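Contributing new records

If you add data, match the layout below exactly. Sequence lines come first and carry their own label; structure lines follow with theirs. Keep one chain per record. Anything else will be rejected by the validation script.
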Amino acid sequence: MKIGLVLNPLAGIGGPVALKGSDGVAEAAMALGGKSHVEQRVRECLECLMPWQKDVTLMTYSGVMGEDLCEKLELPFEVLGRIGESTSAMDTQQAVTNFIARDVDLILFAGGDGTARDICDVVTGHTVVLGIPSGVKMHSGVFANNPRAAGKLVHSMICGELVTAMDAEIRDVDEDALRVGIVKSKYYGELCVPADLQHIQDTKAGGLEVEALVLQEIAVDVIENMAENCTYVIGAGTTTAAIMQSLTLENTLLGIDVIRDRQLLTNDVTESALFDLVCSHQPIRIVISVIGGQGHIFGRGNQQISSRVLKTVGTDNIIVVASKTKLAALAGRPLIVDTGDAALDDQLCGLRRVITGYQDSVLMQVCT
C-alpha cells in the first residue's frame, strides 16, 4: 500500500492561546507562547502502523512536513519534495500533487479545515484522503475522530479488510457570518474518504441553535445549581453562551470565559492563563457543550481546556450541556473526546450525564 504523508506543522497553534484558529496568525500565536502539537498527534497515528511498516511504501515531504518524524520513528520513506525556510499552503498542495503523480492509495494529512481546503483544491478523481485532526475547529467530514482512530483505519486498509469509500464535505467557518455573530460553516467541496463511521467524524452542523427556549431552560438549570465560592469555566458555543446571557455577562462565543459567584472573572482566556487560574482557584467546574453533528466535547475548538487543565480540575467536575435535538442528530453515536492525552481520554470515557433542559438530563456514552 502506498501512502502519501504530509503535515501542516502550524495547524492548531492558535487554539491554546485563544486565537480561534491558526490561519494567518501563526506568528502571533507563537509570540503568545503557542506551540505545535502536530508531530505528537501524527506520531500517535503512525505508531499504530509500526508492526505493518513492511507492507507500506511511505512517501512524504521534507523537514517538519513529514521527513523529520519518519526519521525519528525509523520508518522507511521517500521524500518527494523540499520546503524552503518556512512552510505554506503551496507546499502542502505541491506535496499532494506529487503524491497523486505517484499514484498513492491514500493521502494521510495532519491539519485542520484550512489544510483540507488546500488539499481539496488540487485533488482530482477518486484519490482517497484521510485527515489526522490537528487544527482548532474541524468542521469537515474528512477527519478521523482522533489520531489513534486514523491509525486503526489505515491499519484496516493495510490488512486488506473491506473498507468502502464515501464522499465527505470540506467545510470551513463562514467568516462573513461570523462577523455578525453567526457561527456556521461554509461548503467548499468534497473529498473521498475511507467509510468507517466508528472512526470518521461527521461534518459539523453549523448555524445558531434555533431552540431558544430549550437553551434558556438549560441555562436556568445550570445557574440554579451553581455552588457558592465555586469557579466555573464556561466553554465555547451557543449553548453555553445562553448561560452567560442569562447572567447578563459578556460572553466570548468562540472562546473560554470564567465566572465565580455569578460574576465575570475573565473573558477569552488562553490555555496558560486558564491553567494558572485553575491551580489557584478551588473548587472548579467546567461547563461545555457538544459539537453538533460530530459529538466532540473536548479537542475541537476548546484547546484552551487542555489535558493539564482537565487533570487539575478533575474529570468528575465536568458539566456537559446539549439540547436533545442536537443529541438525537448523532443518531446513536457516542460523544467523543480527543484531548491529545490517550490516558486522560480513557478516563473520560463511559456514561456521562448531559443536561438537556430544566431538571432534565440524559446519560450519554463517551468514547474516543
